[in-house]
Structures are given as C-alpha cells and as structure tokens.
Design brief:
The structure is a single chain. The chain has about 250 residues and is α/β, with parallel strands linked by helices. It has eight helices and ten strands. It has a five-stranded mixed β-barrel. A hairpin with a 2-residue loop joins β3 and β4. α2 runs parallel beside α6 and α3 crosses α8. The relative contact order is 0.20.
C-alpha cells in the first residue's frame, strides 16, 4: 500500500478503510471511537482528528471535518483517495420547525445548498441528496433504538452568524426572506456541512448520509415558549454506529 500522506488529513492508504464516520468537532472523535473495537488515534492535523478501529470485523475511520463545507469537502476527497466509499456524518443542528425539539435526532434526506463549496462541483440546480441505503439504515437504527427522530431536508449554510444574527447583516432582507422560505417548505433544521458532503459524494460516486443531534430550536427560542438546549450527542452517535453495522452486514451479504 502507498505510504503517501494526503495533504490535509495526513493519512495514507495504510490507514485506509471502506467506512468513515465524520463528526465536525475534533473533540467528539474519541467519544465516537469508543464504539469501535481496538480504536487508536492515527492522525491529528489542523481540524482533522483521526481514529481507526473495527466494527463487525471491518475497518472504520472516525475523522473530524471541522466547521463548514470547505474543510468537509477536503476531508471527503482525501478519505476517498485512501479507500473510503461510505460516509456517515454525525453533527449538531438547530431546529427550524417547532416540532423539532432539543435532543431530537434529525436524519437528512437532502440539503438546501446555501454553501459556496458545492457550487464549485455542480451547478446550483443539481440537488444535494443523501444516499438512499445509508439514509434507510439511519432511519431503521433510530426506530430500533426508540429515539425520537425526524426525516427530511436540512439547510446547510456557510455563515453561523448569518443565521443567528441576520438582522445585523447588510443583506438581512435576503437572509430573512430565504429563512422564511425554507421553513415554509418544511426544512427541518440548520447545519453547515451536509450539502457539500452530499454533492462531493455524488460527483465522486460515493455513499453518504447524515444524522444530527438537535441542540436547540431557534424558532421556539425566539417566541414566548421556554428556551431549552441539550448538548449530549449520544443518541445521534449511537444511531450512526448502529446504521453502520447494518450497512456492513448488507455489504457482506452482497
């Protein structure tokens, strides 16, 4: 196997695996790696903290992507070059519909492309859609574990404060108008990486899905309803791990 290191993630084909779980936060990587067998850290460069272990007898990487679409796209590109073809993103999000409550699990079927990175891969008319098999495995995992969950479209953005403080931006009218449109269209939650993950995976012929822990709901927080925040991401992590077990067994049977 080639020992040539990828420029950003600093991993080579010697660290390769077919499957990868992608959190954003480097600090969440060891927590996820605890669900693998014999997991060890194999790299940490920039925002990319990497652990390698096994699950159901298959090698699995857990690699953080940092915040936002550009670093997530780099991570997917370089992991694909060392052999990964199946990606499960585990992230956090903010609820956009009032019924998406803090602590809920959100499984993305697709993403609104409010990022800039994906536009350098495909024209904006091309949809950012999750892989069906990966999404079905995530849905089955959430149901089997009894987690309150939602399935649907999420919004992926580049600017955290463009969402949380739109009134302070010179183009506030555009931001607020689009936010209202996404809500009316049924968008479940807002996050920052899934559109790039789905588009890069489509272009590179990879499988990708995404599951999120809802930290808070911006809509209820801005109303008279009591504000609540929940930061324990365990349910989303367990959903991803269980879904990956399902995918591994399906792949073996094929």
């Amino acid at each position: 196997m080639s020992s040539e290191l990828q420029y950003h993630i600093m991993l080579s084909k010697e660290h390769g695996a077919k499957y990868a779980i992608l959190p954003g936060d480097p600090g969440r990587v060891p927590k996820i790696a605890e669900y693998l067998d014999n997991a060890v850290q194999v790299g940490f460069n920039r925002e990319y903290n990497s652990y390698l272990g096994t699950l159901n007898g298959e090698r699995v990487l857990v690699v953080s992507t940092g915040i936002g679409a550009p670093s997530a796209a780099i991570c997917v590109e370089e992991l694909a070059k060392i052999g990964v073809d199946t990606f499960l993103r585990v992230g956090t999000c903010g609820g956009m519909q009032e019924f998406v409550e803090p602590g809920d699990v959100v499984i993305a079927t697709g993403a609104v492309r409010m990022d800039g990175t994906s536009k350098e891969y495909m024209p904006i008319e091309f949809p950012a859609v999750a892989d069906f098999d990966v999404t079905a495995a995530l849905k089955f995992a959430a149901v089997s574990m009894g987690y309150r969950h939602h399935l649907g479209v999420v919004q992926a953005k580049d600017s955290f404060y463009g969402q949380h403080s739109p009134e302070s931006m010179p183009n506030s009218q555009e931001l607020l108008s689009k936010w209202k449109a996404w809500k009316m269209g049924g968008c479940l939650a807002s996050e920052m990486e899934s559109s790039a993950l789905f588009i890069v995976s489509s272009v590179r012929k990879l499988r990708a899905g995404a599951v999120f822990h809802c930290v808070w709901n911006q809509e209820t927080a801005g109303s008279a309803m009591p504000e609540s925040r929940k930061h324990d991401t365990s349910c989303a992590i367990k959903t991803a791990v269980e879904a990956l077990k399902i995918l591994i067994e399906q792949d073996k049977s094929r």
